[in-house]
Design goal:
InterPro entries: Glyco_trans_1, Glyco_trans_4-like_N, Glycosyltransferase_grp1. Keywords: Transferase. This protein has 16 helices and 13 strands. It is of the alpha/beta class. The longest helix is centred in the C-terminal third of the chain and has 15 residues. The protein starts with a strand and ends with a helix.
């Protein structure tokens, strides 16, 4: 019997939060029963593309969704679903733009059309009117509503959908065994990074204005004044990286900040950290924050991040409007010991083995 093929709709399969979450599920599901294929919206190869192909998945490329190409994009969507009747389940992860994909899928007779919200804010830029338009198109085009948190669900679907119990909260589950604290891994990873006994502050996330890297560096500057041997690890890539590199250089912190780029060894890097710093302007349920808790790290985050993200008691929320010095004071008063949080995360539903089985059953029942 051939596996049921599920069409996952994303922007590009790079090492971002939702993409990593999808790959966690994809690696764990029984691929003799369920197979993932991907509709992406970039021409360039994503970091996970080769692994997807190795696991038996297919990748379909669509143009970038942007003002000015809607008419062409809508036609390409209609053509795609007319030529691919094999997809009975379409699972869209592109937030408000999922409405366009699911509208085309609905016209083609696809019965299970999942809109999945992964963020809790739009942000403000020139695309905002078009994003608001896309959100109004959502209406009844999905047949199912998923979100990574209640905040993310309310932002995309409205509170009425939550109150009517129509939203499924799919946890951003991870492989807990991989992140469990290991002293040997910590020592080895620090050695590779040429770090000895320094206090290490870490951050994992793409370089984007929503992640608030400018403020993050200011907080570290205040910490570094009092702990001159402290280090900052910045993991990720993005369009603001060059700006942040210049800021670090101008502050004279270039020898204390390591820009590590995109990495495959996040599990090991988190073992090397002493604290996870995450002052984002907005998030859904950030995978990196779940991973940091799984590694037993104290986490200091902005108060704009959902309280649902505190799964272990290790997350400390600070006012995003407070000064970097206030943040530094709070951080330096914390204990930096790693804590075993595996049982708490299992209890809260973040074990990938359990959650992948649950998602597989959901797909099979829908088909």
């Amino acid at each position: 019997m051939k596996p049921i093929r599920i069409l996952q709709v994303v922007t590009i399969m790079n090492r971002g939060g939702l993409e990593t979450m999808l790959m966690n599920y994809y690696r764990q599901i029984n691929r003799s029963k369920i197979q993932f294929d991907f509709m992406v919206h970039r021409d360039e190869e994503g970091h996970y593309d080769q692994e997807i192909l190795n696991l038996g998945g297919k990748i379909y490329r669509m143009p970038q969704i942007k003002p000015g190409n809607y008419r062409l994009y809508f036609k390409l969507l209609d053509d795609f679903f007319a030529n691919h009747p094999e997809y009975k389940v379409v699972h869209a992860h592109i937030n408000e733009n999922s409405s366009f994909v699911l509208r085309a899928a609905k016209r083609a007779g696809v019965q299970c059309r999942i809109a999945h919200s992964h963020t809790s804010d739009l942000g403000i830029d020139y695309k905002l009117p078009f994003r608001l338009y896309a959100r109004t198109v959502m209406k009844n085009n999905p047949s199912e509503y998923f979100a990574c948190s209640n905040n993310a669900a309310e932002w995309l679907f409205g509170k009425k959908k939550i109150d009517a119990d129509k939203v499924t909260i799919l946890k951003n589950a991870i492989n807990l065994d991989e992140f469990k604290y290991n002293e040997k891994v910590r020592i080895d990873t620090r050695g590779k990074l040429n770090i000895k006994d320094q206090l290490v502050i870490g951050h994992v996330g793409r370089f984007h204005k929503s992640k608030n890297h400018e403020f993050l560096v200011d907080v570290f500057k205040s910490i570094h004044k009092r702990h001159p041997s402290s280090m900052l690890l910045l993991v990720g890539e993005g369009d603001t990286r060059l700006t942040i590199e210049k800021k670090v250089a101008n502050l004279g912190l270039h020898s204390a900040v390591k820009f590590l780029g995109l990495r495959k060894d996040i599990t090991q890097l988190m073992q090397a950290m002493d604290l996870f710093l995450f002052p984002s302007f907005f998030e859904g349920a950030p995978v990196a924050l779940i991973e940091a808790q799984a590694a037993g790290l104290q986490c200091v985050v902005s108060d704009t991040i959902s309280k649902e993200s505190n799964l272990t008691g290790l997350v400390k929320y600070l006012n995003i409007r407070d000064s970097p010095e206030v943040w530094a004071d709070k951080i330096l008063n914390l204990s930096f010991e790693h804590t075993d949080t595996s049982q708490q995360l299992i209890k809260n539903g973040y074990d990938i083995v359990t959650m992948a089985n649950s998602l597989s059953k959901y797909y099979i029942e829908k088909v």
